[in-house]
Structure prediction request, 267 residues.
Amino acid sequence: MFKKSFLIILLLVTILLAYMLIEPYWIETKEITIESDQIPAQFDGKKIIFLTDIHAGPDFSQERIDSLVNQVNNMNPDLILLGGDYVDGDSEYIKPTFKSLSKLKAPLGVFAVLGNKDPQYETLEVIPQYGLTYIGNKGTWIEEDGSRIRLGGVGDYNNGAQLPGYTTSVVSPQDFVILLTHNPDYFPQADKSKVDLVLSGHTHGGQVTLFGFWAPTTHSNYGNKYRTGVIKENNSTLIVSNGVGTTILPVRFFARPQIIVVNLKRT
Prediction:
């Protein structure tokens, strides 16, 4: 009886461990609709794809990045936003990673901020070389047929400065404003009277969770509050992606890697 119970437990543990190694390759495409009367008619139906936390390195090869890029391009996005942690701290992977990311295609542009794992000097040097636009502590108008929305970003919450004024100082209450930040812990500080949508990653959805309900580690000062998903506060919406890569160990458990697809809808 003891031997049979031991073998059953051993089989279950083996299955769970195998699943934890498989899940990092099982990318989820998560679609979220953002509705607002501030979205101009010309942006109604526009598709924004948000990628974050690739963590290129020994556990996330350039071939996987190329596959990810092809998958995103096949979705025909109008705008692509990149949320940082492109590499897992090793600068030798920066150029190959952005060589692959340079193939991302979106008519309204591809914009990026940095994460806490990105070597800042080397990454900031490479981003424009490969045709992407760095938006950290900057703001720009995204224009379409005479209408526009505001896009901006801030520096990483742990390793950089956060200067949102470059995004919000020129907007009116009628403008639809998107802010890109690697770490969701910045959300409580965001000016929710001006910022409509915040996109972030960093948490990996907890990476290893209790069947998706709770994670012992989120890399957030707020525990599981901003771990993953859609959070609404004071007329502003935060979307936290699980990211696509892994950190520390190449495993996931009920925190599938994600490509976030944001569909804009005018109300």
Remarks:
- Residues 243 and 251 are 13 Å apart (CA to CA).
